[in-house]
Specification:
Blueprint lengths: L25 E6 L5 E7 L9 E5 L9 H10 L4 E5 L17 H14 L5 E6 L1 H12 L10 E5 L11 H11 L1 H10 L16 H4 L8 E6 L8 H9 L5 E5 L5 H4 L2 H20 L1
Parallel strand pairs: 3-4, 3-5, 5-6, 6-7, 7-8
Antiparallel strand pairs: 1-2, 2-4
Helix pairs in contact: 1-9, 2-3, 4-5
């Protein structure tokens, strides 16, 4: 759903936060490389300046102010600094949703902001659509760019595009592809959807995974996910050729709504484990 491939890094125009300012949450507007304004917020968490930061990438029709996204951020903030933002076309952010294509630029802007705030370790955690975005972002922003990540967690993500094998995904395609569906998205779900097809089709999640190593990758999926059955996480894990860690969660449904606090605590522990080990040495 774009006129060109997404992938270039974005530079945040927000100045670094000072030690005195760090005691309270900060809300700001980020600007992506293609000029979209994003509503974003920063919670400094409990750790020292320069500690790990987790950037949360929400699912389609969510935004950073939704209760389920705030709950996720609240659990993560017990262990690390947390950045939440609304993808383009969602909530108070500008632009229109491209359902996972140019959202890579949104995530790049949020990660670059985390770096500008002094965080040496940045981990992305994405849910559903956000899960596919964190995979593609990690594949496209390798090396020493300011939008690089140190670890990636993908929760309830699809492995391939255009999947219609479940009733929820057929309803989602109707929402995205039909004019009346996009009206429902805008009015009922606070999500403004781009009306054009992807051109070109972006790198798929399965194609992105082999490009992520040696960056640590965790794939999390519920065995009762009504959107994407278990062949999706298994395809993603297989694409990593053993480099990714796979958690198949018994009884879990889909994305943020289905991720209970104990699971979120485990994800946060995984995300901060290597930083904790390094600082203990």
């Amino acid at each position: 759903m774009s006129s060109g491939p997404a992938g270039q890094a974005a530079r945040s125009s927000v100045p670094p936060i000072t030690r005195a300012q760090r005691s309270t949450p900060l809300r700001t507007t980020l600007r992506t490389a293609d000029g979209v304004a994003l509503d974003a917020a920063y919670d400094p968490g409990p750790g020292p300046v320069g500690g790990p930061a987790i950037v949360v990438a929400h699912g389609f029709t969510g935004d950073r102010t939704r209760p389920h996204v705030r709950r996720v951020a609240g659990v993560f903030a017990q262990r690390a600094a947390v950045i939440t933002f609304s993808f383009r076309g969602h909530g108070a952010s500008g632009g229109r949703s491209t359902v996972g294509d140019r959202e890579v630029l949104d995530l790049a802007a949020a990660v670059a902001w985390a770096r500008s705030l002094g965080h040496a370790r940045v981990v992305t955690v994405g849910f559903s659509m956000g899960g596919s975005v964190v995979l593609r972002h990690a594949a496209l922003h390798r090396g020493r760019t300011e939008a690089r990540v140190d670890a990636v967690v993908s929760v309830s993500a699809p492995a391939r595009w255009f999947y219609r094998g479940t009733a929820p995904m057929r309803r989602l395609h109707w929402l995205i592809q039909r004019p009346v569906g996009r009206v429902v998205g805008r009015v009922g779900l606070r999500t403004r959807i781009h009306p054009y097809d992807w051109d070109p089709v972006p790198l798929s999640p399965t194609e992105a995974v082999p490009l992520i190593a040696p960056t640590p990758l965790l794939i999390v999926h519920g065995d009762r996910d009504p959107y994407f059955p278990l062949d999706h996480p298994r395809m993603l894990a297989a694409a990593s050729a053993g480099a990714a860690e796979l958690w198949l969660e018994p009884g879990m449904g889909h994305a943020e709504h289905a991720a209970g606090d104990p699971l979120l605590e485990r994800i946060a522990a995984w995300a901060t484990a290597s930083w904790t080990s390094a600082t203990a040495e």
